[in-house]
Amino acid sequence: QAQLVESGGGLVQPGESLRLSCSGSGLTLRYNAIGWFRQAPGKEREGVSCISSGSDESTWYSSSVKGRFTISRDNADDTVYLQMDSLKPEDTAIYYCATAKGAFMPNFPENIDEYRIWGQGTQVTVSS
User: Fold this and answer.
1) Per-residue pLDDT averaged across 29-34, rounded?
2) From the centroid of its chain, how far is CA 66?
3) Helix (H, G, I), strand (E, B) or coil at 1
4) Could you tell me which of 49, 53, 98 has the C-alpha nearest to residue 70?
């Protein structure tokens, strides 16, 4: 069964960094745009970032993470990364990656309906 696998979460202090990875099991990522979402306890799942496939590799970031998070992809390893710097307590959540329905940036990258296959998530906790 095709699925996504996230890794790299953990417990860090405010101001520190983490790098999340998203890879496929029985699934090739390089042909799809890939998005990152997060869900904090008691809150809805929110879009964090997205990267398209192909030569342009356009990116999108939510306003809450723009300037602190960087999304990238390594097609040789077929992995998508989310580098998270200057982490804040409000970044605490379970982080999920998901494949978009196509290669291009979704019209609404923050919308969960633009995505097909989801991973199980990785916990990120930012606390002093």
Assistant:
1) 94
2) 13
3) coil
4) 49
**Phi, psi of 112, rounded to the nearest 5 degrees:** -65, -20
Strand-strand pairing, 10-12 and 3-7: unpaired
CB 126 within 8 A of CB 92: yes
Of 70, 67, 69, 73, which Cα lies nearest the Cα of 55?
73
Rounded Cα distance, 2 and 68, in Å: 31
SS3 category, 112: helix
Predicted confidence (pLDDT) per residue in 66-109, tens digit: 999 999 999 999 999 999 999 999 999 999 999 999 999 999 99
Rounded CA separation 14/12 (Å): 7
Tokens of 80: 């998508």
